[in-house]
């Protein structure tokens, strides 16, 4: 069982610790550069890539602007297809629904498709409290779970681990969770994958209940879609008698044909592939084929809050491709754990505050500042989420949320600057003390600013003094 992100420090503290881990930085740099190169190659093959991005953004935007209608339609079509639809306002309600379904079938374990939303709500931990083991079947998620670790990437949750570390985890932890790793296990990727396959096979064959998320939910047909690279998801979706799919309400698209741009954008942006190896679609129940009891939990958990934010609501277009993580200079140096959430990187820096609100948790309030605003994330986003603009807007919201009460040092500094800059005489007087102030800062620093930057030398002469000495610069011109 993995830990949780509860109690994580604010981003600057977590990032400082991550930066000190040279092995972590090496693992991240190698992995993200490899994924970036693959993505760039397959994107370059598409001559109308920008038009495709516009089409993908339009599909998601249309659904979000008409979300209530599309969700009602989705419920109707799912129900007509034989599925049971549940509505969950928050994580507690969603977890209770899934646990109740598992208990109704006397299930002591469930097998899971890789799912960000079930990590968001802490489903594994909630099921464990009810005596139900939730087994991750995605290879990277399995590594994280066996290592009692936390995911650090949307697409590759174990990106912070190298092959030798994974081999050690399999050797030491697999036996306690089921079939042990072979004695002669090496760190070759094919060998590690084979060990995971053997370990998971017995879980697939005995599981009564499978749990999934969904990449897309088509309102028109009542179809849920999961894309993956390994085939483990398809095993979870077809072998158990009961399937429970937890789906964020923002995953809905209106029409079947809306899947066309999405299924072309997602694989190129995420895994650097032209198409997904496995694209599974299911619409309720088919007698004699696959699960004979299907439940769909439609989850809010802050998404309505995000939808009400006129600037930030575009984050709900996100298709969880992780392209923004792979190009982000901040993520590449700190990794995902520093963000304190299952949603790391640039998208996590805006999505977490949108879902949870700002002004009540220092860790969440620190996330909009976890960016250099270089804009690389927007350039690669397949659905054109303007992450830098949202970050700037959220920084303003964080500041506004802390107005009143005891002012922070930054606010006091800004008020002091405003007082000085309102009158030229005040500014002139303070300029004469610049050198003294810088010497004081060097001696008694570092401050939060100087701890990461070199303090420049004070100029020998202020602009005002130069202006007066040269009679407005005319003496030099002569």
Describe what you observe in this structure:
It is globular and about 95 Å long. Strands 1-10-7-4-2-3 form a six-stranded parallel beta sheet, sandwiched between helices. A four-stranded mixed beta sheet has the order 8-5-6-9. It has helices at 11-19, 22-44, 49-65, 67-80, 91-104, 116-120, 123-129, 139-146, 163-177, 189-206, 232-238, 259-270, 303-307, 323-327, 329-334, 345-356, 362-366, 376-380, 387-401, 409-421, 424-431, 434-444, 463-469, 474-477, and strands spanning 84-88, 109-112, 133-136, 209-212, 216-218, 223-228, 242-248, 252-253, 278-282, 293-299. It starts with 10 loop residues before the first helix and ends with a helix. The chain folds into two domains: 11-303, 3-Layer(aba) Sandwich (Rossmann fold); 414-477, no CATH class. The longest helix is centred in the N-terminal third of the chain and has 23 residues, at 22-44. With 478 residues, the protein is of the alpha/beta class. A hairpin with a 4-residue loop joins β5 and β6 (223-228).
Percent of residues in helices? 40-55%
N-to-C CA distance: 79 Å
Q: What Rg is obtained from the alpha carbons, in whole angstroms?
A: 26 Å
Q: Largest sheet at a glance?
A: 6 strands, parallel
The amount of beta strand, in percent, is: 5-15%
Count of separate structural domains: 2
What's the short story on this structure?
This protein has helices at 11-19, 22-44, 49-65, 67-80, 91-104, 116-120, 123-129, 139-146, 163-177, 189-206, 232-238, 259-270, 303-307, 323-327, 329-334, 345-356, 362-366, 376-380, 387-401, 409-421, 424-431, 434-444, 463-469, 474-477, and strands at 84-88, 109-112, 133-136, 209-212, 216-218, 223-228, 242-248, 252-253, 278-282, 293-299. With 478 residues, the chain is of the alpha/beta class.
């Amino acid at each position: 069982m993995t830990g949780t992100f509860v109690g994580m420090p604010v981003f600057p503290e977590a990032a400082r610790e991550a930066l000190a881990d040279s092995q972590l930085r090496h693992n991240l740099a190698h992995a993200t550069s490899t994924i970036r190169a693959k993505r760039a190659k397959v994107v370059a093959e598409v001559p109308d890539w920008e038009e495709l991005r516009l089409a993908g953004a339009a599909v998601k935007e249309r659904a979000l602007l008409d979300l209530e209608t599309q969700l009602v339609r989705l419920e109707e079509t799912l129900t007509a297809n034989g599925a049971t639809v549940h509505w969950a306002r928050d994580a507690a309600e969603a977890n209770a629904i899934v646990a109740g379904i598992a208990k109704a079938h006397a299930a002591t374990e469930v097998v899971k498709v890789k799912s960000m939303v079930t990590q968001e709500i802490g489903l594994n931990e909630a099921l464990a409290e009810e005596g139900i083991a939730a087994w991750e079947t995605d290879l990277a998620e399995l590594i994280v779970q066996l290592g009692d670790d936390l995911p650090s990437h949307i697409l590759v949750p174990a990106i912070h681990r190298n092959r030798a570390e994974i081999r050690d985890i399999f050797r030491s932890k697999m036996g306690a969770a089921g079939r042990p790793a072979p004695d002669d296990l090496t760190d070759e990727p094919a060998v590690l994958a084979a060990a995971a396959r053997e370990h998971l096979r017995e879980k697939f064959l005995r599981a009564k209940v499978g749990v999934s998320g969904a990449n897309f939910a088509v309102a028109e047909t009542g179809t849920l879609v999961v894309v993956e690279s390994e085939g483990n998801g398809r095993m979870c979706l077809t072998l158990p008698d009961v399937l429970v799919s937890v789906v964020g309400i923002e995953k809905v698209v209106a029409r079947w044909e809306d899947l066309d741009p999405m299924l072309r954008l997602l694989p190129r942006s995420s895994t650097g592939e032209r198409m997904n190896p496995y694209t599974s679609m299911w619409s309720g129940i088919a007698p004699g084929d696959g699960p004979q009891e299907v439940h769909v939990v439609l989850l809010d958990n802050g998404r309505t809050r995000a939808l009400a934010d006129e600037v930030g609501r575009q984050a709900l277009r996100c298709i969880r491709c992780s392209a923004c993580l792979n190009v982000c200079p901040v993520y590449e140096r700190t990794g995902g754990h520093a963000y304190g959430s299952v949603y790391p990187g640039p998208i996590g820096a805006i999505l977490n505050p949108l879902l949870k609100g700002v002004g009540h948790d220092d860790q969440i309030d620190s996330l909009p500042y976890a960016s250099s605003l270089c804009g690389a994330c927007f350039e690669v986003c397949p659905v054109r989420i303007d992450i830098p603009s949202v970050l700037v807007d959220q920084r303003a919201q964080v500041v506004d949320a802390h107005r009143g009460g005891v002012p922070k040092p930054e606010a006091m500094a800004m008020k002091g600057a405003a007082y000085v800059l309102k009158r030229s005489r005040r500014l002139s007087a303070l300029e004469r003390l610049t050198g003294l102030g810088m010497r004081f800062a060097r001696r008694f620093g570092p401050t939060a600013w100087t701890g990461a930057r070199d303090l420049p030398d004070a100029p020998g002469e202020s602009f005002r003094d130069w202006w007066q000495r040269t009679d407005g610069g005319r003496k030099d011109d002569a």
